[in-house]
Design brief:
This protein is of the alpha/beta class. The chain has a single domain, classed as Vaccinia Virus protein VP39 (Rossmann fold). 39% of the residues lie in helices and 18% in strands. It is built from 10 helices and 7 strands. The chain has a 7-stranded mixed β-sheet, with helices on both faces. Strand 4, helix 5 and strand 5 form a beta-alpha-beta unit. Helix 4 crosses helix 5 and helix 5 crosses helix 7.
Amino acid sequence: MNKSQEIKGLSLIIPAQTGIRNYYDWIFDTIGSYLGRRVIEIGPGYGSMAERIVPRSERYAGLDISADVIEHLKEKFGGEKHASFRQGSLAGNADPNLEKELVGGGYDTVFMMNVLEHIEDMAGFLKAVGRCAPKARVVILAPAGKMLYGSIDREAGHFLRFEKKDVAELFSKAGITGEKVFYFNFFGAIGWFVANRIMGVRIHDKSSGAMARLFDRYAIPVIRTFDKMFSSFYGQSIIAVGKFNE
């Protein structure tokens, strides 16, 4: 079994995260200005970011390998006529019909959050994404910090956590012109190190859900106001923005 296929779909998401709002608001406030009006989101999960992207888009396509994710999202966003959801993959032996379908949508942005680390051939995957949205902007949020790699990463099938140099090398291989790369959520990195490296928390541990809810409710509103002062050095995540060359 491929490492990236060990856990997938809704089973990969900590159930408590469905009640988290401040964290996703913070992410959207951070990346929203980089998003165009016609967006492909790869790996939308429960739809936490789609909730924020769909209302301000004129066209939205959510793509996921998991049938249960797509079924859930179709029910959740059934009233949004400009939003569509499709099961499929652009990694490995991608469906050529899927690529043709997406090219026809004239999408100007591709967004993916916590997706890239699950894919072994990341450059090949990004090249396939670029064929679906030529000259579009790509906005990526992924796990940062090799020293943070631990129990949850292994269980989730993460191949790595990224440093800035990893993103630069990947963009170069994939034919993407980098625009901006920066760390995000410095204090989350501290909490992740404790939970992931010291406590050995697992994805569906009750403690992981409780910690996520507490952090979202009480910590995020405070730390987001001055995170930039610290995340210029390090963070739990990395955000990369670039543009496909072709």
